[in-house]
Amino acid sequence: MSFLLEIAWTHVSSRIRQTFIGVLGVATGVGFTIMLAGLMQGGQKDIIHMLVDTMPHVTVTDERISTADQPAEQFYGASQAANLVAVARRSGITNPSQVISAIQPWLPGSIAPSVKISAMINLSQERIGVKLTGIDPRQEEHVSKLVDKMREGQLSDLNRAPNAVIIGEALAKKLGARVGSNVTISTGQGISISGPVVGIFQFGVRDMDEGQIYALIRTAQVLVAQPTLINEIHVRLNDALAARDVASQIEGQTGYRSVSWQEANADLLSVFKVRELITMLVMAAMLLASTFAIYSIISTITNEKRHDIAIMKSLGIKERLVRLIFIIESVMIGTVGVLAGSALGYFLCLAMGQITFTNPFTGSKEPVPVYLTITDYALVALLSLICCAAAALLPSWKATRVHPVDIIRGAS
Amino acid sequence: MTPTALQTVGLVRRVEGEVSTTLVDGIDLEVKEGEFVAITGPSGSGKSSLLYLLGLLDAPTEGELYIGGQATSRLSDSQRADLRLSTLGFVFQFHFLLPEFPALNNVLLPMRALGRLSPAAMRAKAVALLDSLGLKEAVNKLPSQLSGGQRQRVALARALANDPQILIADEPTGNLDSVSTDQVFSILRDVARQNRTVVVVTHDLGLAARADRTIRIVDGKIAEQSCGPHTTG
Predict the structure, then answer these.
(1) Does A3 touch chain B (CB under 8 A)?
(2) Residues A396, A308: contact at Cβ < 8 Å?
(3) Of A138, A148, A132, A139, which Cα lies nearest the Cα of A100?
(4) Gap between the Cα atoms of A284 and A286, Å rounded
(5) Which of A85-89, A386-390, B60-64 has the least mean pLDDT?
């Protein structure tokens, strides 16, 4: 085996220019593939972080996943009911404290009740439809990143004035409101209240910053004239990726429909899958293109080495061993190319991370998100080496099929 | 009785094409161990084709070749390669040394492929072999730094590296001057004296006369056989 390595090394080291071109081809392919992977992952992670930050990991709604217990079941040991459908009317979660107490002991995270209603907010002539979420500020800070997203005021300021609200920055701009402005909130039930804006937040997500406001739970209950209403329970987990499992566990335990953040954003996540596939294909094409450089070099070497191949075969060195020489050469060039490409990819990612763009919605300067793990490097390197080895298969196979006698006769 | 090293029975090599050409036409031949046989004949007579068949570089269309009593027609490519590596040594008109490797590494190549000896033993043997062929100074020289005669002697050393029982040489002196030619033939003669079989194709009838037996091939057939001065019976 060592003599094969020695021959292979001699071939590649005595052809510096060709070897350099091969290394350059592989390095370019690997470097840009790594950069592309970093950008793709960075972009996705950025969006996912945004999703995970702006919404509860699991939202327990007041929608029943099965019909409620029937009265007959309460009075008789056995009963049968047919053609039952879940009641469409959703009057909130029955006995929310009990539901929370049942979940809390095993839940790997925090939990908070809330009321979600639709409302209109107006200031002067501006009247805008919004989602109002009634929260308990002390509990909410454990289940959302709202506290971190406050630009002005604090969550606890909701307690400082009756009917106080916290609104998004974009909404405040639309309304012309600021902290201290008095706004009017009204609902479809014909109830209307006035209260001050005590805080302004910015998530950097249009839906949230333009269409979401927060008030105390009590305020929301007044607006729908249901003084005990709790229609959502928000859950934040220590591990956001466990949301699907936790949601189904809560659903099974409480009978209330529980939605994980992944389920709530299934459309977006499925778009990611398509995007991922496209990016993978582009990366594969880049790697493949870089291996053409290897193919070309190995073809040239095998062509130049026809005499050597013939003599090695005539000496009795097996065809597969001769073929292995050229595959080793390809892997040698590939290995150097992969190492150089990994460094190139790393610096390209660093350079990309320095580029900033202006978020058209928030107006803030944000860096291009880039994210790479050592696994990504390893994966690209492995794929590239496999491609390099594969690129040598055809030319080495063709070259070693040569009949020694044909070469020997030709040379004599 | 001296054992047989090589034997052919009705050996035929035909090349099919628009016009079928018979390169070797039914040759029956027996070469003893330690025998030095020269094959002569006009250009295109089939002597090299016969040599390639004897060296397992080519396969006969018909007939059988026995090497050390073993029939070879049914051997796989891999088995033929093994047999070439362990039993046969080749020298060609063109030296075919690997150009990027010094003389020593060229001689080491078949030894390393066979892997019978330790690296140190291989190296010692290769150096000794080169030394015995008058190439002590050429051990670390590239083929391009050697004269034609030296290259051919390195090729000879490589052919002898695995102590082959049969040495096959195709016009080994075809590109050499008279001094080098004489040297190479003397070496081949010495190899035969070590009870190894040597089969040489040559145009040089003077050199052929130094062999134990000369076989003249014409049109792919043995036209004439004669014993040389070294024949011992």
Answers:
(1) yes
(2) no
(3) A139
(4) 5
(5) A85-89
Count CB neighbours of B143 within 10 A. Answer: 20
- For B81-90, how does the pLDDT look when each residue is reduced to its tens digit (9 = 90+)? 999 999 999 9
pLDDT digits 0-9 by tens, A287-310: 888 888 889 888 988 988 888 898
| A401 in contact with chain B, both atoms CB, cutoff 8 A | no
Of A3, A10, A405, the CB nearest to B112: A3
Q: What is the pLDDT of residues B198-229, one digit of tens each?
A: 999 988 888 888 889 999 999 999 988 888 66
Question: The sheet that has B213-218: what strands, in order across it?
Answer: B88-91, B166-170, B197-201, B36-40, B213-218, B221-227
Residues 93-112 of B with CB under 8 A from A: 93-94, 96, 98-101, 105, 108-110, 112
Q: Are B157 and B135 in contact (CB under 8 A)?
A: yes
Does the distance separating the beta carbons of B86 and A316 come in below 8 Å?
yes
Give the SS3 label for residue B39: strand
Compute the average pLDDT of residues A149-155: 91
Tell me how far apart the alpha carbons of residues A176 and A172 are, in angstroms, rounded to a whole number.
6
Q: B113 and A315: CB-CB below 8 Å?
A: yes
Query: Sorting pLDDT into bands at 50, 70 and 90, what band is A43?
Result: confident
DSSP, res B118: -
- Render pLDDT for A349-395 as a digit per residue (tens, 0 to 9): 999 988 888 877 667 788 888 888 888 888 888 989 999 989 999 99
Tell me if chain B has a CB within 8 Å of the CB of A314. yes
Chain A residue closest in CA terms to B167: A315
**In this structure, how many other beta carbons lie within 10 angstroms of the beta carbon of residue B185?**
24
Question: What's the full length of chain A, in residues?
Answer: 412
CB pair distance less than 8 Å for A310 and B96: yes
DSSP state at residue B143: G
Chain B residue closest in CA terms to A404? B57
> Does the pLDDT at position A68 exceed 70?
no
Query: Token pair of A150, please?
Result: 């406050």
Instruction: Determine the average pLDDT of the residues in B15-29.
Output: 89
pTM value > 0.80 = no
Check pLDDT > 70 for residue B231.
no
pLDDT at B233 over 50: no
- Each residue of A31-41: pLDDT tens digit? 999 998 899 88
Inter-chain contact A315–B52, Cβ cutoff 8 Å? no
Task: Among A10, A316, A409, select the one facing B101 at the smallest CB separation.
Answer: A10
